Amino acid sequence: MTNVGYNVEWSQELLVEESLREYAAGMMLIEILRRDSVFAGGAWAGKSGEIIYDMSVGYDLAGIRSDKVQRFLDGMRDASGVIEKLREQIPAECNFARALKYPSRISSTLTLSTFHGCPANEIEKICEFLIGERDLDVIVKMNPPMLGKERLEHLLHDVLGYGELTVNPAAYTSGLLFDESLGLCSRLTSFAEQRGRSFGAKFSNTLEVLNHKSFFPPDNQVQYLSGLPLHVITMALTDLWRQDVGPDVPISFSAGIDAKNFPLAVACGFVPVTTCSDLLKPGGYGRMPAYLTNLTKAMKFANARTIDEYIAGTTPASPTLVRAAAVLNTTIMAEKARQDPRYRADQNRKVPNRIDSHLVILDCITCDKCIPVCPNAANFTYPTPIVAFDYHDLTIDAGVLMPATELKRFAIEKSAQIANYADFCNECGNCDTFCPEYGGPFIEKPSFYGSIESWTKAAPRDGFVVASANGTALIRGRIQGVEYALTWNPAQNTYDFSDRAARVTLSATNTPLSFELSASAPCHQVNMGRYHTLRHLLHGVLDPRCTNQVNVRATV
Prior knowledge:
Layout: E1 5-7, H1 16-35, E2 55-57, H2 61-65, H3 67-77, H4 80-87, H5 95-98, E3 109-112, H6 120-133, E4 137-142, H7 149-159, H8 171-174, H9 178-194, E5 199-203, E6 207-210, E7 222-226, H10 228-245, E8 251-253, H11 262-267, H12 289-301, H13 307-312, H14 319-339, E9 379-383, E10 387-391, E11 394-397, E12 400-403, E13 408-412, E14 416-421, H15 430-434, H16 441-444, E15 447-449, H17 452-457, E16 463-469, E17 472-479, E18 482-489, E19 494-498, E20 502-507, E21 512-517, E22 523-526, H18 528-542
Parallel strand pairs: 2-3, 3-4, 4-5, 5-8, 14-15, 15-16
Antiparallel strand pairs: 1-7, 6-7, 9-14, 10-13, 11-12, 11-22, 16-17, 17-18, 18-19, 19-20, 20-21
Helix pairs in contact: 1-3, 6-9, 10-14
């Protein structure tokens, strides 16, 4: 994401049972880090802060009542079975982690998404079910169009200058309306209090706008806007809503948060404050330390020792004063955002420059921009030697193996290469957004799969898989739809290279030692360029000097 964010994907990319497993695995990893002094380097030492694993469901009561969603909610209440299965996967060198006691209840809070035309009465029924029957604290995610067409489009077009954007007209009437949200909030707050639970609001969902660019296919009529312009709109909506609802309803916030406005959002008493789009910019997750650094500076400037003192601007800070100050701060920060030129269109139109170059499997300008901007850590680097040599393909004819006539050239010009771990990649295209070359790293760079099964399932897409067994290493690859395999035998220092018709055994110096030809192919030409590509890919990704997603799974 270069400036303003757009997406056309829904948030759920996993099966429901996979979601439960990922929640449990994430919780276990955090518990391991909190108790470990080796892998985390003591970074998590000291008093542990609170961690909330928030659930999210939508968009109608019938779907939420379905067996599969109920099994998910049951699992989040008691994940013992999933935890024990994951415990078995912890490697022996981490025995301390196997012995840890992990909390069986992962979550007791849930955020309800209200997109896609979920009406007010349906939202209220869902919340009553989740609070009353599932015993959960519930937060309802509010939508930007609640601000109203006149206010929203004045901000979007007149104040911020995004005249090219058209809000989806249906968004103003298909979902929860502002006045409806006030009554709903009052009733559900009382409903939750009577049952010992809490109710709150989250600001906000993304903003539905019409698809006006060529990035997404034209059949996507609507796209969802995030980032800096959404921050201004959502702050205005939150301020307006808080003026009517008052200071007592908890509010969480997620709209265009970055390191600069994070301290301001904290001053509004929002809990939690969530960031997303900013992490899709250069630096990725490495951008996050600046959030806390800036908050620390702001608190020191205010002589505040606690968040409550920071919100209230005074010591001591009573709960009543903190809540009142949070409402006042929201009004101040909403106007501050409205006046800040960095949110405006003329400050957010620049996109990365492209050079006249197209990505291929090996070599690129190796700027490494694609690595930190990947939200799933799917892109990685691996080393290769710088080489340049001539070679011939091999021809098998009438039982004779001989060099082909044409002389070809194989060269690697960079010692660092880029690859993609396909099992982690959801093809969001963010790496392509920042890549100076054409083609997209997730498409053109070698995609490695974590298993033979996932590689086979991905056909006919090009890709590679590496495996090891009995002291040998194997790489299988699909290049331009053709499948190849290369097995390296370190003990003999030989390579067996095969395609769909022939197998050739070569020495470490690429001298043919033996060959076999399929009976159905009386003659055949072996593409030695593919052999050299596979050989350098295999040794590169297995190089122990650089840990990556491939070599932690396949070692010789």
